[in-house]
Every structure is written in C-alpha cells, then in structure tokens.
Amino acid sequence: MSKNKKLKQKQAILQNNRNKQVKESNTNLSFNLVPIEFLIAFPNLKISKDEIDFLSETNINIPAYIYPINEKTIHEQNLVLKSKDLEPFQYYKTGWMVISAENMQPIGTFDKLELAKDFIYSTYPNIKQIRYNSLGLKSGYPNFHDIPNLNSTIDKEQWIEYCLHLEEQHGFLFDPQDLIEYLIKKLIKEHDIPTCLYNSFYNNLDISPIIDFIKEKRLISYLTAFEILSSFEYEISKINK
Asked: Which domain of life is it from (predicted)?
C-alpha cells in the first residue's frame, strides 16, 4: 500500500468518526471537527485487532482523547458548552485539552502534553498507553537508522520483529516499500549493485533483478530482509489485515 493510499485510509477513518459523532450528538454544535492528529488513551500496550476496529467502526474501552489547543478548537468547544447553558471553559492559548469519550466534552486543559498524559493516567487507572490516532507512538516517518545488522546472519523472526516494531511506533506511516528502497540504496553504496536495478524498482516496483543480484553475491541477510518485506503488508502486518 502506498503512502498516499495509507493517508487516504487514515483520513477516511477520521471522517467516519466525525460523521458518527455528529449523528450521535445531542446538538449539531458537538465537537465534530476532529483534529487530523490527536492522541487516544488505550487500555492495551500493543496495537490489537480491537484497536484497529475502534479506529474504523466500533468503540472499545476508550475513556479520553487529547486534542491540540488552538483558537478554532477553543471557539468550537465554548460554542458547545454555551449551547448547553454551561460556562465557557478556561483554556491555555496553546497546549492540550483532554476530551471525555463519554460526551466529547473537555475535562481538562494543559500547557504541556506530558501533563495531559499524567492527568489521564491518574484519572483512568486502566489506561496503559497513549498513542496517536495514526496507530503509532511517534508522529512522522521512520528513518530506518536502527535496522538489524546486515553484516551478520539475521533470521526471519528478527526481521519480522523489527517490522512489527516499526508498525507499532509509526502506524500507517511505516511503508515496507520505503524500507526496501532504503536497503537498495545501501546495496548500491556498500555492494556496488548496478543503479539500473534501482531504477527498475523505482519505476516498476520490480525487485526480482535485485533478488537475483543478492543471491549471486550470497548476501543472506539482505535476502531474508527482502523476503519479509515483500510479504509484510498482506501476511504479517496487524494494521492492513
């Protein structure tokens, strides 16, 4: 799956959640413009099927969210409160607000993200991890600087563990094709692979000539990596199943 397709999938999931909030709200002023990126309090440490289901359709035991604060969110939240004859909330001009999942109303504001997280952990003892809505602990794309040592014998289990770790950390932003491209560039730099093979991959996503080169040079660790990466999205990934 390409980056663009993954980002569209993420946007579709967010839009689905927005639509559900509007439909189920008691007022059309409910907070229905969900930020593109926010944090969710999860009762599980690792990404699970329940979590994926939550982000697409169903609600699991999620007590709260953390939204970034800006003038637009302050205005919208206070409109909701005013429509329910409640006093406007006191916000920091910038920072983070904790939103109750029960009624999508703010229950706390903080100038630092860590304070918002501490508030959730102390308020909801069952929460074990706070993750971004992109199914990742980190925002942004992985840089692959911590890949397994390709100069030693790396078995399949180690590469599977590494790829699942990237998926845990970066969610939809981890694309196995990006890691394949990274490894091909290492082959060019360290093993003099012909650049035409890289061009073949770049233009046609064809790695078979590269696999042939790797086999010829007996680069076993690379061969294992390519085998896992080629099958990761459809056979191993927890997100894309």
From this structure: Bacteria
